[in-house]
Amino acid sequence: MVHVVVVGAGLGGLRTVECLRSEGFSGRISLVGDEAHEPYDRPPLSKQILAGTWPEERATLHRGELADLAVSLYLGRSAIGLDGGAIELDDGTRLHYDTLVVATGVRPRRLPGQPDHPELHVLRTLEDCRALRDSISRARSLLVVGAGFIGAEVAATARMAGREVTMLEALPVPFARVLGEQMGQLCARLQTDNGVSVRCGVRLMDFVDSDGGIAAQLADGTVVRADCGVVGVGTVVDGGWLSGLGVPTEGGLLCDATGLVEGTGNVYGVGDIAAWRHPTFGDRPRIEHWTSATEQAAVVAQHIAGAKITRLADAVPYFWSDQYGLTLQLIGRCDLATSVEVLHDPGVIKGTVAGYFADGALVAVLAFHAPRLLNRYRLLVANGASQQEVNSAAAELASR
């Protein structure tokens, strides 16, 4: 009987298992996860679960019993090596596979010399969330290192709980590399308008002792103190256990447009660790978005099950972030853009919509709590509409 081993029991791994069964795959499936919990959703960790407004069980991904999927579970165990068509787990178990799906995600990047301090955290797992939530519950102040989406969401959660928050960002403008300076400044304003002290263009040199709290020493000699802190400075791929495949892993697994890892015939990559070849642009971005993992899982499952592939993954990537009661939504690939144009400017952050263009073609749209407008641009992004077509659509929408 064909045996599919899925390593990584997060969103991408679980959705692959679910889709395999829904596609009629009747072979053996094993699911390996390094956390002891049943698969859970990660986005609420920086918002509802961190705030304590959701019970942890609400983040459980599978609605029903995992046993109904006829899957062998190896939770609380890590894959440490791979050779001869078998995965070796840290408890000595060897799982032989016919097909392997790698959905192990990424881990938080740590700063050079970052200390192991009980009040200094990263945020990726449920355990990380519990520890950070406990610190924030006892704190009056929080230091956020890194103004990316994790840092921004944690800052928003802490401010809404009444904590003083200071945010440090090495770039001159938050999100400048991701969203461009103009929209990055708007994201910074969203923080400052809600009482966060945002300090950009600063270089953190070291963490120093601070009477039980934390203190960051900056390059200009100043020291920023807080009761607790979180470091959100990006992610790294941890693919060392895959060295037996004989393919590059440092920047993620290089996959074709069906998720098959190039250089292999029976290994697939799903989710944050996977760099799929984009069906339109031909490059291989590693897209760390929730919807990307679900779309990739569906394609991989259809391919493994021998079913007709009914959709493309990541044709129009989608991402969202919730901060201060507003939802920021992004569709498309703003990393490809050479120019940004504000399409709707109501004079406040809420309702602002920006278009991202590459050589005059629309490649992405960012909306600040404007879902109706964003949805109207989705097809234009998919079709690479011209700037003239986009401006005409913007004018029509503004007149309604």
Write structural notes for this entry.
This protein folds into three domains: 3-106 and 237-305, FAD/NAD(P)-binding domain, CATH 3.50.50.60; 109-231, FAD/NAD(P)-binding domain (3-Layer(bba) Sandwich), CATH 3.50.50; 325-398, Enolase-like, domain 1 (2-Layer Sandwich), CATH 3.30.390. The chain is built from nine helices and 25 strands. The protein is of the alpha/beta class and 400 residues long. The longest helix is centred in the last third of the chain and has 16 residues, at 290-305. It has helices at residues 11-22, 48-51, 126-138, 149-160, 176-179, 181-192, 290-305, 371-382, 387-398, and strands spanning 3-7, 28-33, 72-75, 79-83, 86-89, 94-96, 99-102, 107-108, 120-121, 141-145, 164-169, 197-200, 204-208, 214-218, 223-226, 228-231, 235-236, 253-255, 267-269, 274-276, 318-323, 326-332, 339-344, 353-358, 361-368.
Q: Briefly note the structural class of the backbone.
A: alpha/beta
Strand percentage: 25-35%
- How many distinct domains? 3
**Class of the largest domain in CATH?**
Alpha Beta
Count of helical regions: 9
Radius of gyration: 22 Å
**Record field, number of beta strands:** 25
The neighbouring-strand order within the major sheet is 3-2-1-7-19
Largest sheet: 5 strands, parallel
Fold topology:
Layout: E1 3-7, H1 11-22, E2 28-33, H2 48-51, E3 72-75, E4 79-83, E5 86-89, E6 94-96, E7 99-102, E8 107-108, E9 120-121, H3 126-138, E10 141-145, H4 149-160, E11 164-169, H5 176-179, H6 181-192, E12 197-200, E13 204-208, E14 214-218, E15 223-226, E16 228-231, E17 235-236, E18 253-255, E19 267-269, E20 274-276, H7 290-305, E21 318-323, E22 326-332, E23 339-344, E24 353-358, E25 361-368, H8 371-382, H9 387-398
Parallel strand pairs: 1-2, 1-7, 2-3, 7-19, 9-16, 10-11, 10-16, 11-12, 18-20
Antiparallel strand pairs: 4-5, 5-6, 8-17, 13-14, 14-15, 21-22, 22-25, 23-24, 24-25
Helix pairs in contact: 1-7
